[in-house]
Each structure stands twice: as C-alpha cells, then as structure tokens.
Amino acid sequence: MVVDGWADEAVDRLFQALADATRRDILRRCVRGELSVSRLAEAYPMSFAAVQKHVTVLERAGLVTKQRRGREQLVRTDPDAVGRARQALDELETAWRARVDRMSGLLADDAGPDEDSTKGQGT
Fold first, then answer.
1. Cα gap 5→121, rounded to integer Å
2. What are the backbone angles phi and psi of residue 36, rounded to the nearest 5°?
3. In the predicted model, what is the mean pLDDT of residues 15-28?
4. Interatomic CA distance for residues 57 and 83, integer angstroms
5. How far apart are CA 107 and CA 65, in angstroms?
6. Cα separation, 20 vs 67, whole angstroms
7. pTM
8. In this structure, are residues 60 and 13 in contact, taking their beta carbons and an 8 Å threshold?
9. Which of 11, 50, 80, 105 could connect to 46 by a Cys-Cys bridge, CB 3.0–4.6 Å?
C-alpha cells in the first residue's frame, strides 16, 4: 500500500515501531514535550542502551526526531508522522469496507430475490 507517497517499506517501519508497547509509551511521553534519552531511560526497567535502541527504531520510522543539545539527546514526537499512521489506517479501512460491501452484494445476488419482492404476490 502506498500512503501519501510512502512506499510499503516506510509503512511497514511505521507499524513495526508502533507494535512495541515500550515504543508506544516513549512516543506518548514525548508528545507531552521533548525529553532526553537519559530521562526516558529512568522510566523503564531496562538499560540506557536498550532505551536508545527503542528511540532509534522510532526515529527510523519517522515518529520522533532527536536533537543533540550539549551532552543530551532530546527526543521529540513528530505529529505529522502520527497523522500518516492514521491516514494509512484510514486507507486500509476504506479498502476493506469496499471489499466487504462487494462480498455482501455477491452474497445477496446469490441468495436470489429477497422476501420483500415476493410479498403481495397472490399466495
């Protein structure tokens, strides 16, 4: 699926990044304001390096940006990326709803005339 010029690979990276609960939590925390990687690491029962790896996955997916300020790396959520995720889901929903509608139509055609069309015919 191509979303607003995104190739399948970019959409895959986006949803793979969102598939992990820790990364979703990092994203939520950074929506409230930029945080340093070291500050983020304090919130999780894992090593600083592990948190850094999670941030890198989010950055590769385009969900966050990092900016070095002195010795700190500040992480900020990219609100446009969240919109792209929503757009990708909306496009999937549209495609699946169209498929379900087509299947419903085929099933209705296969079932023959409905009850309403046979009512009122002398029985």
1. 56
2. -75, 155
3. 94
4. 18
5. 49
6. 23
7. 0.70
8. yes
9. 50
